[in-house]
């Protein structure tokens, strides 16, 4: 089994820490300290940080320092706009590509993922798995990558907000209705249902973000 290059391993781990809010906005990452932690030279750390900078997750600073990027309400709105633009497209393509076994697997993800979910973060994690699978079924790798990045950004938002109570009934009902349309092979109706689902979710996301008081209004 091949081993990922050092820069890739560092990138994945630092990205995970940022998404899971283990590294908070404005927290500094020292290249020398990171190299010592990961047991590498500074070069793969710099390479990883430049990728994270490209992702918008850090800001490179002079003297071997960088800072975790802030999350603003504008950031949240931008991510939600991406979901509205790409979610229906991914769903439409997925319906045209999915087999009966694929739909069965999607159903298992939905039913198992929402079992026991009781707050925004756990519900979002279940939704993340479901929608990433739909995007993968689209057969469009770029669309899948965009979807995954947007959902990770939303996961970061909710982890920064802390735990917020939320019932899983509505998103689960939405996914069950979507699966019925998948089985019927109606791509346009599936895209419409997905857009409605994303817009309902948008209201929840914005309310949680605003009520948390965590996010700056300006980018």
TrEMBL record:
It comes from the Bacteria. The keyword Magnesium does not apply. Keywords: DNA-binding, Transcription, Transcription regulation. Gene3D superfamilies: GntR ligand-binding domain-like, Winged helix-like DNA-binding domain superfamily/Winged helix DNA-binding domain. Coiled coil: none annotated. InterPro entries: GntR_C, TF_FadR/GntR_C, Tscrpt_reg_HTH_GntR, WH-like_DNA-bd_sf, WH_DNA-bd_sf. Residues 4-71 form the HTH gntR-type domain. Pfam families: FCD, GntR. The keyword DNA-binding applies. GO terms for molecular function: DNA binding; DNA-binding transcription factor activity. This is HTH gntR-type domain-containing protein.
